[in-house]
UniProtKB/TrEMBL annotation:
InterPro entries: FAD/NAD-bd_sf. This is Amino_oxidase domain-containing protein. SUPFAM superfamilies: Nucleotide-binding domain. Pfam families: NAD_binding_8 (PF13450).
Length: 252
């Protein structure tokens, strides 16, 4: 906004009083404080349909005393220093929760111990957990991709060029395209525990990976450090999980 000339009488309407609106207001008043724009030259009005500000960052308490978080309500580590600076200046005390997210790869492990079918998320960092043959195949593909120009016109090509076809086939495509869920019905003629499930497929993005562009993926999907992957491949699952617990990131 500092590159935009603000003439006297400039009027700005911000629709919605959520985090983005407050981020914009913070930036505007920072520019005023820096003398880049004059407070007298700009009029601002914020329109919010609710009785409270906050948007999806709000929490509301119902008549029974239960508090509902309207949005995700967690922050990870941001690569934007200004965002970190501002958010830390307005929140005095953080509730830190260790991130514990895992993906079900039972189709790879086929273990009777259900816990052994899960690997830490993001899956591309958990290649050392994979069965040996699949693990080596992923590593070979990643080595072949090293130094090659990344040419992609869609998300499927991006995934194949960055992570390799094996990882694309065993996780990225099925995860992003559809997830299988079993829905149980309470109908009188259906017995829970027998033929009680109706299998439905829920599309994550509602379109195939080939129909999605890849512009968003560069900053949203964690990349792979091949040397780190290879370093951890000689370790047992127990050792890998121990390392994970000591380095586990936190949500705030």
């Amino acid at each position: 906004m500092s590159s935009v000339k603000v003439d006297k009488g400039f009027r700005l309407v911000i629709i919605g009083a959520g985090p983005t609106a407050f981020g914009m207001l913070h930036r505007i008043y920072s520019l005023i404080a820096e003398g880049i724009i004059s407070k007298e030259d700009i009029q601002i009005i914020v329109l919010e349909k609710e009785d409270e500000v906050g948007g999806l960052a709000r929490s509301v308490t119902d008549e029974k005393g239960f508090t509902w978080d309207l949005g995700v309500h967690v922050l990870g580590v941001s690569k934007y220093p200004e965002f970190e600076k501002v958010i830390n200046s307005v929140v005095n005390k953080w509730n830190k929760v260790r991130r514990s997210a895992k993906a079900d790869l039972a189709h790879l492990f086929k273990s009777d111990n259900s816990c052994s079918n899960y690997v830490p998320y993001p899956v591309q960092h958990s290649i050392p957990y994979f069965p040996p043959s699949i693990r080596q195949k992923c590593i070979n593909e990643l080595k072949d991709l090293q130094g090659l120009p990344v040419n992609c016109s869609n998300f499927a090509e991006y995934s194949a060029n960055i992570f390799g076809n094996t990882l694309l086939d065993i996780f990225i495509r099925p995860y992003n395209r559809k997830s299988q869920e079993t829905v149980y019905t309470s109908a009188a003629n259906v017995v829970i525990g027998k033929e009680s499930g109706i299998t439905v497929f829920v599309s994550v993005w509602t379109v195939e990976l080939e129909e999605m562009n890849a512009f968003w993926a560069w900053n949203r999907i964690p990349n792979i450090d091949l040397s780190s992957i290879e370093l951890h491949c000689g370790r047992s699952r127990q050792e890998l999980e121990s390392d994970l617990r000591s380095s586990m990131a936190c949500f705030r």
